[in-house]
Hints:
Blueprint: E1 8-15, E2 18-24, H1 32-39, E3 49-55, E4 64-71, E5 76-77, H2 81-93, E6 100-105, E7 108-114, E8 119-125, E9 131-137, E10 140-149, E11 151-157, H3 167-175, E12 186-194, E13 197-204, E14 209-211, H4 215-227, E15 235-238, E16 244-249, E17 255-261, E18 263-270
Parallel strand pairs: 2-3, 4-6, 11-12, 13-15
Antiparallel strand pairs: 1-2, 1-18, 3-4, 4-5, 6-7, 7-8, 8-17, 9-10, 10-11, 12-13, 13-14, 15-16, 16-17
Amino acid sequence: MRDGAGRTEFFKVSGAGNDFLALAEPAAEPPAERIRAWCRRGVSLGADGLFSLRRSPDNSGDPGVSMVYYNSDGLPADLCLNGTRCAAHLAFHLGWADGTVRVDTGSGPVLARRLDEARIALLLPAPERPRELPLEVDGIRYAGLHVRVGVPHYVLPWPESLDQAPVESLGARLRRHPALGEEGANVNFVRFPAESRIEIRTFERGVEAETLACGSGILAAAAAGLHRGIFVVPAKVVTQGGFELEVGFEPNGDRWTLAGDARIVARGDLLPEAAVVPAAPDWS
Length: 284
């Protein structure tokens, strides 16, 4: 919400290192340029993205919330699972729900359950069937897979340690590869060191950089591993932020689960100066 002095109340939340600004029942959705300014690190509060959260009980009276999610470029995205866990955690914190809550996203409803004070579990539809999609960059062929988990992902199995994986350089090239179409894709560098363990680093579109975690990327990686027969669930997933998440699915495979860290780290007011963005330097 905004008051007469131009202040905007916010929460700063984080899901496995993916950090977001959250607005609880704002009077209106913020414009793209303001989101970009607020999410810019160094000169404003900084975040990987922003979401608004509103109460939205359905016809049965069950507690529910709706979230509208934006990447840090100010553009909306249908799904962010780390953000969805944070949205559920915020709904519990605000007293809008207790224990379980339905979170309506641009990709459909997701059921969230609080496991403890630090972890939220999501129950959601299974990812689409992965599609083998080799891509070529600078004459090198990369044997990855395309998977949609609400948003598009490119999963690139990486046989070596992820410590030196070219996430920023190669990830940026693959993210906009012509074969991925106009929307491009998040690019996930994935290692399967054991049949029930995933290690993952992600270059995220909209952020246009590596983030410390990507929830939908984790499900995309798991789906790709199952497709190739090199992975089983339930499993543990290690992210660049050092967090360990858990992925699994129901016996019939129709719905998958993702459980992991969600936290509220701050609450305050964004002041007018937070929306002031300096011009790019005019170097000589």
